[in-house]
Amino acid sequence: MTRLFQTNELRKVHPLDGSWDFVSVKEEELDLDKLDYRYKLTVPGCWEMHPDFLTYRGRGAYRKRVIVKEKTSLRFVFKGVSHTAHIYFDGLHLADHYNAYTAFHAIAKDVEPGEHELVVVVDNSFGEFSSLHVPNDYYTYGGIIRPVAVEEIKHLYIERIAFTPIWENDGWKANIQANIRHVENREQTYSLRFRLNGKEYEAGLGEAAADGTSRVGGTFEFPGAEAWSPENPVLYELRAILSVDGKESDDLIERVGFRVVTAEAGSIQLNGKDIVFKGVNRHEDHPMVGSAFPLQLMAADADLMTDLGCNAVRTSHYPNDERFLDLCDERGILVWEENHARGLSLDQMRNPNFRRQCEQVNREMVEQHHNHPSIVIWAILNECASDTLEGRAMYKEQLEQIRELDASRPLTFASHHRDKEICFDLADIVSFNLYPGWYGDEDPGELCDLARGWADASGGLGKPMIMSEFGGDGYYGYRDPSRVRGTEERQADIIEANLSAYTARSYLSGMFIWQFCDCRVTEGTDWLLTRAGTRNSKGIVDTYRRPKLAYATVQRYYKNFEK
Ligand code: ADA
Predict the structure, then answer these.
(1) Would the CB of 342 count as within 6 Å of ligand 1?
(2) Peptide bond preceding 296: is omega within 30 degrees of 0, i.e. cis?
(3) Residue 93 C-alpha to ligand 1 middle, in angstroms?
(4) 298 pLDDT exceeds 90?
(5) Partners of 466 in the beta sheet?
(6) pLDDT tens for each residue of 307-333
(7) What is the pLDDT of residue 527?
(8) End-to-end CA distance of the chain
(9) What is the predicted pLDDT for the residue at 1?
């Protein structure tokens, strides 16, 4: 299951999740005909969950047989492969994709009836070719970590829909655009209409170029539509229907909500009303599944966040599984979604693949997740070199790219450069990662006031401000009356001091605790040695979601705080 709702009524979609053949592959052995698939692994899944691959970093090949009943074109949809995928169908190379956290597809045209073979060669190794997946303070797992489906497509199909709500003259409108993809080498005309809440809206006629993409859409009025909000997260199904020669031939369903987000007068507004984020940073990580979350565990995390009193989550540090975003849409949890990057130095940003790989993940994130009403902020490049002129040029390029793709959401990036930051003028919201009480002994309130001053002095004047990370390690079960660093008591003290300061500062538009759950990190030397047990232990719950002492502290603040 790729989403929490049915995505098509006309187009046939078959899930490919289940048990796949698998074998690890050394680079020199990559001869697809000679592979001896000795294992069965689940898809979605991370190979680290198998006893023979607990720390395996390298390549693996997955194989699945695909039965086709009638001649058709097939579109294989991969929601996430960690981190590089090479797709082969009946031995023919179809597509490649980099980055674990965005979806991609591969098309096999005019497939004859019978049995076929899909092979996915997956690579999770590190090297210059991978500028974003690097040894880091979270774990890059290996495998097909998110769902896979195969769709039977006609030569013309709806690739995606972009729904942008507009509040104008006391009523709801929306701009809706559909991208139509043509996989045949001739021109073709078509007509498209949308359906929402029982009503039909004609988008008009389109002309699809040979082997190209065309776009149709318009702005439509939706009188009487109910607004989406955290208190009342009303969702509507939006169906696009494509007709060729007067006959319905394809469709695509999205789930949308009517809401607008603005960042004005130093605050953030949802439907014109100021909001304050009471949030956590969350890594998609769990010891039993790695980064390949089943719906049950996603829902359990969302339940815990609500129980903590949160109204928001930051998808640190990459785009999340769409099913988690669907859950946030349904529950009214506000989402800060960010591209994939954590703590890259200027030298790492100079990797020859960095700009291209960022451009790709930004585009895929915004295009694929555009319709989630829960996403209210796009962010980029957590703690990278935004304190340098060379870094600034890349921040500028990426923020402009995202603004071009979607002008309906405010943009930010989380900075730890304090008074050395030089990119606040480029964003709509200023966000600080500061760790008072953990990496230093500063007073959280005083530091927060200083940070406001740094922002005001360097391009952030008048912009809303968020404390995007704060916290401290607490090793689950390590309790000691000394309250030394690392005890659950000390962690609770740090969280208490931070929350008490931030909830008292009316100029803040939100706070995101680092972090929701403990997570696995890359085994390494240097600073990674400070991560006892190859784990980042700043979670409010441990890796198995057992609450630490700080849990009750967070509840006390978040449940009682309203701006
Ligand atoms: C940074 C970073 C996080 C995490 C955190 C920590 O701010 O953004 O990913 O590494 O520090 O635990 O120190």
Answers:
(1) yes
(2) no
(3) 39
(4) yes
(5) 431, 510
(6) 999 999 999 999 999 999 999 999 999
(7) 92
(8) 39
(9) 84
Ligand 1 center to 419 CA (angstroms): 19
Q: What is the mean pLDDT of the chain?
A: 97
3-class SS of residue 545: coil
Q: Does residue 563 carry a pLDDT above 80?
A: no
Q: How confident is the model at residue 26 (pLDDT cuts 50, 70, 90)?
A: confident
Summarize pLDDT for 483-498 with one digit per residue, the tens: 999 999 999 999 999 9
Q: Is the CB of 433 under 6 A from ligand 1?
A: yes
Q: Which atom of ligand 1 is nearest to the CA of 439?
A: 13
**Which distant-in-sequence residues (6+ apart) come within 8 Å of 521 by Cβ?**
136, 137, 138, 139, 528, 531, 534, 535, 536
What letter does residue 475 receive in the DSSP assignment?
-
- Which uninterrupted H or E stretch holds 378? strand 375-379
Distance CA 162, CA 178 (A): 6
The structure's pTM equals 0.98
Quote the ligand 1 centre to 534 CA distance (angstroms).
14
Ligand 1 atom closest to the Cα of residue 536 is 12
Cβ partners under 8 Å of residue 518, min gap 6: 476, 535, 536, 537, 538, 539, 541, 542, 543
State in Å: Cα 41 to ligand 1 middle: 32
CA distance 480 to 551: 17
* Omega cis (within 30) before 116: no
Give the pairing of strands 18-25 and 59-68.
antiparallel
What Cα–Cα distance (Å) separates residue 561 from each residue in 200, 310, 534? 43, 10, 35
Residue 130 Cβ contacting ligand 1 at under 6 Å: no
With contact defined as beta carbons under 8 Å apart, do 123 and 84 qualify? yes
Q: Measured on CA atoms in the order 40, 108, 114, 15, is the torsion positive or negative?
A: positive
Q: Residue 184: what pLDDT?
A: 84
pLDDT tens track for 440-476: 999 999 999 999 999 999 999 999 999 999 999 999 9
- Using the mean position of ligand 1's atoms as its centre, give its distance from the Cα of residue 178 in Å: 38
pLDDT at 311: 98
In degrees and rounded to multiples of 5, residue 478 shows phi and psi of: -90, 95
